[in-house]
Amino acid sequence: MGEVFAGRYELLSPIAEGGMGAVWRVRDLRAGEVRAAKLVRHSDAGTLLRFVREQSTRIHHPHVVTPLSWVGEDDTVLFTMPLVRGGSVADLVGDWGPLPESWVLAVVDQVLTALEAVHDAGVVHRDVKPANLLLEPTGRGRPHVRLTDFGIAATLGQPRLTTGGAAPLGTPGYAAPEQRAGADPDVRQDLWAVATVGLEMLVGHPPPFVTDEAPATPLGGLFVQARNPDPDRRPASAADFRSWLAPLLPAVWRPGTVEVLDQFDADVLPGLTVEDGRRTQVLGTPDPGPASQPAPPVAPSAPATPAPPVPLDVPREATPSAGQRDTARRPVGVLVAALVVLGVALLTVSALLLLA
Amino acid sequence: MTTVEPDGLVRQRQLYGEPVGDLVRRVIAALDLTQSAVSRVLGLSPAMLSQLMSGQRVKIGNPLALARLQGLLALAEEAPRLDRPAVERRLGEISASRAQLTTSTSSGAAPDGGALVRGVLRAVASGRELERAADALEAVSPAVAEVLRVYGTGSADDAARHLASIAHLLGR
């Protein structure tokens, strides 16, 4: 059996890295089900905790995935989510390169319906990017997208929830210019990001895009317009953006050669370690204080074999925090074992010094 | 004894010269990588690479991934002459490479111009191939042959010197 977190979740294999933490495939030993789980440092968990705890920010929508529950252990919080098996839009672009307009329209329109619900709840996602757009394994059928990873989401008109304080957060290439400059959360920042995703799907690679690279088609033109540096010249809302796209939506689904593969097929799992090369980070600030440094990844990057995402075998004093529940305490035996190891190490070093 | 090769592998042989599985296993052995590391460098999902390697799926759908596989095969050929940091650096270049040549919109001297040309040449051919190509071109165009030698097999400094020597011709 693999590493078990908080006595309940067996870590099976890493799925992705990013957004202030690592995502793992886990088995819920109590419910007997396999789920996705995001492991986040306690200090970065505020926004997600709020999503789980507060009814007002719980978003139930067919195109949104938010955490189901959470459990804390030591300095780490594990959020469980439904496992979405088709990979992400980043995988889709990687596998197929430039995608047919039918796919781009279907994906972007669904993401915008998700954002309508998110924005209606008074939340700005702030990290819309292909790796955060998960796909159901629909094969050649019409895709089904789920927007995920609300780790740096912000509530409109309220103090920032994330630990970054005033530091701008996001992913380079997908964060709108004013978001990179540290502007207050605004729904049109998410729309800039959606347009960037749309362009990436059309051209077949991540940003940056060079001048004239966008296809000279009505759809390409719309995305370029929605990426205007001036937020006032973008669509005003997700619904507005959808109305721009509506005339282009095809009546009949034509998949072309593209299909969404099941990434958790038994054949794939042994070699499975997907990595999101573009991690969400604290974007550059003129004078970053210690508090605004990017959080180090919780898991070692690119493990050849699945490794536990946190040094669970090292005892650590649990970070005191309000509202922590279900927190498993490390048995004293582990602490003793660690002290013994430390003692042996010290003795070895002393012995070596004496010999030298 | 003859075994019948599955249809997908036959078609891959026609398309790529060899089945994708054989090509990828050669890269894995020469560069000491895992299959998931190869999938990351190629930019293909693990499921896609797995289906391509088994012949269950015939064609590499993303042209960028195909170009990167060519880059990996060239690197595999050169690997015995390279140290590990050099291999890692080239893996990073291949992973970040984009087949279509895009022109930087920034004006002024482009310090990475030489590196770009080097990257392109080395992504498509091995050092030995570039030398042979330069020899073959010598009679037709000595200047082009020099470009292949300087950027293809020379050092970064060689490339920078060459670029500086022709800067006045680049209209910057």
Describe the structure.
The complex is a heterodimer of chains A (356) and B (172). The longest helix of chain A is centred in the C-terminal third of the chain and has 24 residues, at 332-355. Chain A has eight helices and twelve strands. Chain A has helices at residues 46-53, 89-96, 101-120, 177-180, 187-203, 218-226, 238-245, 332-355, and strands spanning 4-5, 9-18, 21-28, 33-41, 69-73, 76-81, 123-124, 133-135, 145-147, 154-155, 169-170, 281-282. The two termini of chain A are 43 Å apart. Chain A is an alpha+beta fold and 356 residues long. In chain A, the strands form four sheets. In chain A, strands 1-2-3-4-6-5 form a six-stranded antiparallel β-sheet, covered by helices on one side. A two-stranded antiparallel ribbon of chain A has the order 7-10. Chain A has a two-stranded antiparallel ribbon with strand order 8-9. With 172 residues, chain B is an all-alpha fold. Chain B has two domains: 1-99, Orthogonal Bundle (434 Repressor (Amino-terminal Domain)), CATH 1.10.260; 108-172, no CATH class. In chain B, helix 5 (63-78) runs antiparallel to helix 6 (84-96) and helix 8 runs antiparallel to helix 9. The longest helix of chain B is centred in the middle third of the chain and has 16 residues, at 63-78. Chain B is elongated and about 55 Å long. The model of chain B is unreliable at 100-111 (pLDDT under 50). Chains A and B meet through helix 2 of A and helix 3, helix 4 and helix 5 of B.
